[in-house]
Write a structure and sequence with these properties.
With 284 residues, the chain is of the alpha+beta class. The chain has three domains: 75 residues, no CATH class; 68 residues, Dna Ligase, domain 1 (2-Layer Sandwich); 111 residues, D-amino Acid Aminotransferase, Chain A, domain 1 (2-Layer Sandwich). It contains seven helices and 14 strands. A hairpin with a 3-residue loop joins β1 and β2. It is globular. This is ATP-grasp domain-containing protein. Pfam families: R2K_3.
């Protein structure tokens, strides 16, 4: 279905009479969800009278897509400014700098000497939006020589070359599994979903490994995430938090819930909880 000039979708519907969705399958089980098999869904043949959730994968040209949909009288839940506030590190980092590792954003690729002036090795390197599929050799950089190799790779990597480089203070996290070659070790990390500043789901980030929160850990993780939600202040926010080897909780990153995979969260319960929040708010 060609919804706008540059956006083709697979489905457009309203769930439980309250939440409009536009859907484009990504083929990824960790992201896609078949709403029609689990909820009461009505196809949308007209522009909904409330903001719409876009589950169409990563949206490279959000500003363009947003305004094309707006011309069709479809308003996404996040404005372009809100989307950047929860998806681009240069935008969200200043809001939570005291809750996450020290970071520097480089408009142009820096030399190893420049990085050494700003950090001590090792460092964690990522794009302003994402890492390269958790690849350790492109993320955890131990010294200047490794960094020089990264610079060469970065310029040709399809996932990294278009992003600004972000260097972050490397903080050791509690490891739960480290058996996959050249992958960032699985840490004691959790993904939390917030809908209108209310927690609607929490699950393991490294969903193929088993680990769980104690009551104390849950209390500390939620206290941190609640504070982040209040500062970022968008409708649908994803927050990744992890526990350091010293026992402290820190923010790893935040993301737009529209683009985020479920990780170890139960997808059905996540959407069910969001619908409950909407029904409660609409009844007030």
């Amino acid at each position: 279905m060609q919804l706008t000039q540059s956006l083709s979708i697979d489905d457009f519907f309203i769930v439980e009479g309250t939440l409009p969705f536009i859907i484009q399958s990504t083929g990824l089980g960790i992201y896609d969800f078949d709403f029609r098999n689990f909820f009461n869904v009505q196809s949308a043949f007209y522009s909904p009278n409330q903001p719409t959730i876009a589950r169409i994968g990563a949206i490279e040209k959000y500003h363009q897509i947003y305004h094309e949909l707006l011309a069709e009288e479809i308003t996404l839940i996040h404005s372009p400014d809100e989307h950047e506030r929860c998806s681009l590190l240069p935008v969200w980092y200043p809001l939570i700098a005291d809750l996450t590792p020290y970071s520097m954003v480089y408009t142009n690729l820096p030399s190893a000497k420049t990085v050494e002036e700003d950090f001590e090795w090792p460092i964690f390197v990522k794009g302003e939006r994402q890492t390269h599929k958790h690849k350790k050799s492109l993320s955890i950089i131990e010294n200047a020589e490794q960094f020089e190799h990264l610079l060469i790779h970065w310029q040709y990597d399809p996932m990294l070359h278009w992003q600004k480089m972000v260097c972050r203070q490397y903080i050791s996290l509690q490891v739960v599994e480290n058996s996959v070659a050249d992958r960032i070790p699985s840490s004691f990390e959790f993904r939390l979903f917030y809908w209108k500043q209310q927690l609607v789901s929490i699950g393991r980030y490294w969903y193929t490994s088993y680990y769980d929160l104690s009551d104390k850990d849950r209390e500390q993780a939620l206290k941190l995430a609640d504070e982040v939600s209040k500062r970022i202040l968008v409708c649908f926010l994803v927050i990744d938090v992890a526990k350091t080897v010293e026992g402290n909780w820190i923010v790893i990153e935040v993301n737009d819930g529209q683009e985020s995979g479920f990780a170890g969260n139960n997808a059905f319960l996540l959407w069910q909880n969001i619908i409950k929040v909407e029904h409660r708010l609409q009844s007030i």
